[in-house]
Amino acid sequence: MAIYQANDKYRAQLRSTWIADPADGSLLVDDVPDNVPTIVVVGWGTVYETVFTVTGKSGSTPADYALTGVVRLKGANVNLAENLAVNCLNNEEFFNQYSDFVNDEYLNMVEQASAPATPAAGELRLYAGDDGKWHVKNDAGVIATLGELSDEWIDVADAATMTFDLSSITNKLKFLCAALTANRIFAISNASEGYVFMIRVPQDGTGSRLVTFFEVDSEVVTITIADPGVITTTFDMKTGTPVIFTTTDTLPTGITAGTRYFWIRTGATTGNIASSKVNAIAGTTITTSASQAGVHTMGIQILWPGGDLPELTTDKFAYDDFIFIVHSATQITGVIVAQDS
After folding, report:
1. What's the rounded Cα separation, in Å, for the pair 43 and 30?
2. What is the dihedral of CA 40, 43, 44, 46, to 10 degrees?
3. Would you call 332 helix, strand, or coil by DSSP?
4. Domain extents for the chain?
């Protein structure tokens, strides 16, 4: 059944009785609309109220007008007398009635050979393509296939801080940075456990641009001066996770702000640190001493193979491809998968 345009306040009357058994295939009416409604109500608000589907119209004068291809959906299963009202009162009623019908059955739509026009701001257009798939077009003119994600890159403009939004529902999480024209800071938003995303980082005509990668998370921690030094946090991290400390004043001796250390897990909320991943695995801890002051923040870093930060390609116009996996709220793993050098 095709969906026709809903009419705004189509009103008519039966000019002859509609017979229920055997059911007439037409409603004889005294007026027909320009656009045939898919749903009409006969006897609205009375004990005879009956809902019909409609597929066409016929006639050229009030004496022979008819709504054709009618099928009773629900309501009174009796003969309907002449002069009963025939209504498609408004678009809202049309769609509410149509929903009552199709929710328990199916919706047929004519396949489209090409995409519809771009909808107005804040709107989406859903349509059936002649490829047998459902598509949606947003107000920016971007088309997505329902149940599939586009393989097109998500462009990220060059900026001092470049943010990668992981909330896309139309594209695979493949980000293409504009060529870096200076050293850049990367940030992410809307990350969730299980996400996998790719970032391509191109150099410009100068090359040798550097990137400061995003932190997994950070929070204020308590550092206890001891041998070994003890850090208390709400994060539960596995041994070997890289961390960096910053402070508003002075860190205890043994810890330097901005230096990468590696976590040694001693409990769900406590740990020590080591100077390398190898030392962390071996349990070789760092001792803290002297005094400390201010508020200390610990940032969880990306876990790279071997624990070392990756080295970007330095060649002009070359690029690096990175893959990241969000394992949990406290662990993101990164790896270089390709380098154009």
Report:
1. 15
2. -160
3. strand
4. 10-102, 110-148, 154-213+310-339, 217-301
Q: Which of 10, 12, 21, 35 shows the shortest CA–CA distance to 83?
A: 12
- d(CA 140, CA 39) in angstroms, rounded, equals 33
* Residue range 152-161, pLDDT digits in tens: 899 999 999 9
Is 245 buried (19+), middle (13-18) or exposed (0-12) by CB count in 10 A?
A: buried
Predicted confidence (pLDDT) per residue in 255-302, tens digit: 999 999 999 999 999 999 999 999 999 999 999 999 999 999 999 999
**Contacts of 26 by beta carbon, 8 Å cutoff, 6+ apart:** 58, 66, 67, 68, 69, 70
Which tokens hold the place of 244?
């960096």
Domain 217-301 part of CATH 3.10.20: no
Read off the pTM. 0.62
DSSP classification of residue 62: T
